[in-house]
Amino acid sequence: MSTRPLVRFEQVQKSYDGETFVVKDLNLDIQQGEFLSLLGPSGSGKTTCLMMLAGFEYPTTGNIYLDQQNINRVPPHQRNIGMVFQNYALFPHMTVEKNLEYPLKVRRLPASERKAKVRKALEMVQMEAFAKRYPAQMSGGQQQRIALARALVFEPKLVLMDEPLGALDKQLREHMQLELKALHQSLGITFVYVTHDQSEALTMSDRVAVFNDGIIQQISSVNTLYEAPQNPFVANFVGDNNLLTGTLSHTDGDMCQITLGDGSVIHGLNVNHTATGHAAALSIRPERIQVMAAPTHNCIPAQITNTVYLGDHVRLICKTHDQQEISIKQQVSQLSADTSLAPGAWLSLQLPPAFARVFTA
Ligand code: ADP
Ligand code: MG
Predict the structure, then answer these.
(1) Are residues 211 and 286 in the same domain?
(2) What are phi and psi of 36, to 5 degrees?
(3) CATH code of the domain in which 310 resides
(4) Which residues have a beta carbon within 5 Å of ligand 2, which is an ion?
(5) CATH number reported for the structural domain that contains residue 55 in this entry
(6) Are residues 252 and 214 in the same domain?
(7) C-alpha radius of gyration, the chain, whole number
(8) Atom of ligand 1 nearest to the CA of 214
(9) Most exposed residue of 42, 204, 290, 349, measured as fewest CB within 10 angstroms of its CB?
(10) Residue 312 and residue 218 share a domain
(11) CA 38 to ligand 1: nearest atom
(12) Is the domain of 349 the same as that of 228?
């Protein structure tokens, strides 16, 4: 990655009503050529960020740079940014060809160049055969491909997408995710993609910025986001997670001990490096918990409330003595044959310290 970012948000804040900020102190660098997703629940400020980058909204305070140029007051059509929305927004009275030609006409390209570029954009999304169709004569997935081609036709450096697959059914959505990822890899254009769907973000992105309440909670590679969440919100929003509450009872550099509500003392990673005595939460993924035949170190007793067989693995829902719920995903082959998985049975659950992340508020 280059060291000079393509886009820089510098202390950007946005308020629509002059009272509450829906984007707060946003500092974000977007690197040339990356696929960055803005992931977060509804209302967390993702679309507002994208709209400010596109030029349809302006920051209340702070600055946005594109290629080192301050673009705070540059109108959308002068930013040379491609955009794709959830509701395709193709012109219904124009054929596919005319839809794709439109952004080129606006940019005053001569007719001869327009034809070649339209053909190339249709090739990119493998829709050459649909040039003469009208939007209403195509499926949702086909329309969305055309919308993508229209965002690419004028060869922008940056393409912004806001939940572009939201209206498609699950199977087509997953297929299009892989297509978008492949297209990104072949074009080398920078993609910024808004979604509330964590699996979509994980599938496609180089990096993900997790938003909550107008604030980026964490920005990192997909792998780091899943394996090393920086706070309970990220741990819970990305992937399945267990969160057990207790008190930080001992710290030792990067490691610590948390005393859980049932008195169990568990070693884990001291993520926030806080002093002892604070209320804390231990976060661990269901697949990292080991079901042991007998109690050993770093174990917590828990009683099975529900067992679900899923072929290759089994999902166990358990409760601790103090009624905290723990979900476990275990390979069937890893379970000892004499371990009872019947509801009501007590298990020893080992929480390996390297995967037990302890957060303090
Ligand atoms: P997201 O895309 O993450 O769902 P948005 O950026 O759309 O979030 O919205 C963030 C907050 O800003 C929400 O509380 C929303 O109601 C508010 N909001 C969004 N657009 C407008 C607008 N044009 N006028 C007033 N409030 C808005
Ligand atoms: Mg939105």
Answers:
(1) no
(2) -110, 130
(3) 2.40.50.140
(4) 47
(5) 3.40.50.300
(6) no
(7) 25
(8) 10
(9) 42
(10) no
(11) 3
(12) no
Ligand 1 contacts CB of residue 46 (under 6 A): yes
3-state class (DSSP) for residue 244: strand
Q: Whats the size of the chain, residue-wise?
A: 361
**What is the 255 CA–ligand 1 centroid distance (Å)?**
40
Rounded distance from Cα 48 to ligand 2 centre (Å) = 7
H/E stretch holding 148:
helix 140-152
Domain that holds residue 245: 241-360
214 lines ligand 1 (CB under 6 A): no
**Backbone angle region of 18, left / alpha / beta, with phi > 0 → left and psi within -120 to 50 → alpha:** left
Pick the residue whose CA is nearest to atom 15 on ligand 1: 43
pTM: 0.92
- 167 burial (CB, 10 Å; 0-12 / 13-18 / 19+) is middle
Matching residue, tokens 């990096």: 207
Residue minimizing CA distance to atom 26 of ligand 1: 16
Residue among 20, 21, 22, 26 whose CB has most ligand 1 atoms within 8 A, to mutate: 22
How confident is the prediction along the chain (361 residues), in pLDDT tens digits per residue? 457 899 999 999 999 999 999 999 999 999 999 999 999 999 999 999 999 999 999 999 999 999 999 999 999 988 999 999 877 689 999 999 999 999 999 989 999 999 999 999 999 888 999 999 999 999 988 998 899 999 999 989 999 999 999 888 888 889 889 989 999 999 899 999 999 999 999 999 999 999 999 999 999 999 999 999 999 999 999 999 999 999 999 999 999 999 999 999 999 999 988 888 899 999 999 999 999 988 999 999 999 999 999 988 999 999 999 999 999 999 988 777 778 889 999 999 999 999 999 998 7
The answer on 33 and 176 residing in a single domain is: yes
With a 6 Å cutoff on the Cβ, whether 40 touches ligand 1 is: yes
Please indicate whether residue 42, judged by its CB atom, sits closer than 6 Å to ligand 1: yes
- Do 323 and 197 share a domain, yes or no? no
| DSSP H or E run through 304 | strand 299-310
Same domain (yes/no): 47, 187: yes
- What is the total count of domains within the chain? 2
56 Cβ inside 6 Å of ligand 1: no
| Residues 118 and 100: beta-carbon distance below 8 Å | yes
Please answer whether residues 59 and 12 qualify as being in contact, where contact means their C-beta atoms are separated by less than 8 angstroms.
yes
